[in-house]
Design a protein that fits this description.
Layout lengths: L7 H22 L6 E7 L1 H4 L3 H11 L4 E2 L1 H4 L6 H10 L1 E8 L7 H17 L2 E7 L3 H6 L2 H13 L5 H15 L4 E3 L4
Parallel strand pairs: 1-2, 1-3, 3-4, 4-5
Helix pairs in contact: 1-3, 5-6, 6-9
Length: about 180
């Protein structure tokens, strides 16, 4: 099945939909002090130069404090500690799932932390399914499944327990109401 590539106007329109939803949810969650209003989790090679950068710019233009790893980390910070802290200190986590998200140990560890924060501190989680169907996450199929299998092939036997944790987090996130953004198929 083939669909046209999303135009920049369509991407900006989707970003506008996110902003409207963020504003409603931010007003509801202002009771808790958080350093960041939004934490963006994404696979850089898939979406940094397209959807995620548009979303980031749109949120910032609306005055929303967004944590995005390429400009929010201080030099010398240990990335895992900084990212975990940024996730914990955010009101909303936006996870931009893309075809290669499942091939990144880093992205999957972020996802596990985000889903933990949803359960323990009530963080709002908004999934964006960018060029992937939510069922591909639940069942690790399609292009997403191929990427996840690639990671599986690279991990050691001692780390296989992480696979269950990652799969559980993927299923949990895929069950949340989110946005589907089709770029190309």
């Amino acid at each position: 099945m083939s669909s046209p590539k999303a135009s920049e106007l369509e991407i900006d329109q989707k970003a506008g939909e996110f902003i409207a939803k963020f504003k409603r949810n931010l007003r509801q969650q202002r009771t808790l002090f958080r350093r960041h209003e939004v934490f963006l989790s994404f696979r850089g090679e898939d979406t940094r130069a397209s959807f995620t950068s548009h979303l980031y710019a749109s949120l910032r233009n609306e005055g929303i404090n967004v944590f995005m790893d390429d400009d929010s980390l201080q030099r010398g910070d240990r990335i895992s500690e900084s990212l975990n802290q940024a996730i914990e200190q955010s009101q909303i986590a936006v996870i931009v799932f893309s075809r290669n998200y499942g091939d990144s140990r880093w992205c999957l560890d972020e996802l596990v932390k985000i889903m933990d924060c949803q359960r323990t501190i009530g963080q709002l989680v908004l999934p964006v399914f960018y060029d992937v169907d939510p069922s591909e996450l639940r069942h690790q199929t399609g292009e997403f499944g191929k990427a996840f299998q690639s990671l599986f092939n690279r991990i050691s036997k001692q780390e296989e327990d992480k696979l269950r944790i990652w799969r559980d987090a993927l299923c949990e996130a895929a069950a949340l109401a989110g946005f589907v953004v089709l770029n190309s198929r």
